[in-house]
Amino acid sequence: MAERHGAPEQAVAGKSHGGPGGNYKVILYEMENFQGKRCELSAECPNLTDSLLEKVGSIQVESGPWLAFECRAFRGEQFVLEKGDYPRWDAWSNSHHSDSLLSLRPLRVVGWL
């Protein structure tokens, strides 16, 4: 049997999804409460601290949902972030292992067959 490479599609239900071909947009801030350096994403980013930000202190999800990871390359604990404001790390995480997220990607909706 051939091994499939790449990430499997994720399925979610909810009102905030981008839908098939939908738009995804998130604004990341380096500091809590939407302060400091910021960047906007509309596609996945396997390493947010590589050149974009030193850390992620707060997030505004304009359209989504998004799947956030505590480690680079979409690894570690995962968090689903739906449309809304996340002013501090503990607004989206109960993690005691780290204090930021390091990778992020849109959570694509898969239709029922």
Automatic annotation (TrEMBL):
Which keywords does this Swiss-Prot/TrEMBL entry list?
Eye lens protein, Repeat
Keyword Repeat applies:
yes
Which one Pfam family would you cite for this protein?
Answer: Crystall
Q: Where is this region: Disordered?
A: 1-21
Please name the InterPro entries in this protein's record. Answer: Beta/Gamma-Crystallin, Beta/gamma_crystallin, G_crystallin-like
Report the superkingdom from the record.
Eukaryota
Q: Which segments constitute the Beta/gamma crystallin 'Greek key' domain?
A: 24-63, 64-108
Q: Write out the GO MF terms.
A: structural constituent of eye lens
Q: Where are the transmembrane segments?
A: none
GO BP field? lens development in camera-type eye; visual perception
State the protein's purpose. Crystallins are the dominant structural components of the vertebrate eye lens.
Protein family:
Belongs to the beta/gamma-crystallin family.
Q: How does it assemble?
A: Homo/heterodimer, or complexes of higher-order. The structure of beta-crystallin oligomers seems to be stabilized through interactions between the N-terminal arms.
Q: What is this protein called?
A: Beta-crystallin B3
The source organism is Rhinolophus ferrumequinum (Greater horseshoe bat)
Identify the gene encoding this protein.
CRYBB3
